[in-house]
Design brief:
This protein is mainly beta. It has one domain. The protein has helices at about 50-55, 100-105, and strands spanning about 1-5, 15-20, 30, 60-65, 70-75, 80-85, 90-100. A seven-stranded antiparallel β-sheet has the order 1-2-3-7-6-5-4. The longest helix has 7 residues, at about 50-55. The chain is globular, with a radius of gyration of 14 Å.
């Protein structure tokens, strides 16, 4: 698997990143949102856990501990799609969209 940085002039941490599998035609596994991105419900970098709970109260919410720290996962009902909000303590520091493991910040390997 590899990341495609959609803005080669920017710092990778702040750019839109796509995780693509190198096999089977390059399937999209997930997206890491740029630092300026906000969800349709207004959640973005700097948002609190309480703001996520309030914005996504109608969706299943799972808090999990991952390599990067606490991650709040919001699952789209009836799918395997998740929004993952990574925290540095009090506020969101990163947003990922994809399957459970990708959105939770786990390191993914191709095999």
């Amino acid at each position: 698997m590899y990341f495609v940085d959609t803005d080669s002039t920017s710092d990778m941490a702040g750019a839109l990143q796509l995780l693509v599998t190198p096999d089977n035609g390059g399937h999209l596994v997930g997206i890491r949102a740029p630092l300026v991105a906000r969800t349709a419900k207004g959640v973005g970098i700097g948002s609190t856990h309480a703001e996520i709970v309030a914005a996504y109260r109608e969706f299943p919410l799972i808090d999990t501990q991952a390599q990067m720290g606490l991650v709040a996962l919001v699952q789209k009902p009836g799918t395997e799609d998740y929004l993952g909000f990574t925290f540095d303590g009090a506020s969101v520091t990163a947003i990922a969209i994809g399957n459970h493991d990708f959105a939770a910040g786990y390191e993914l390997c191709s095999g």
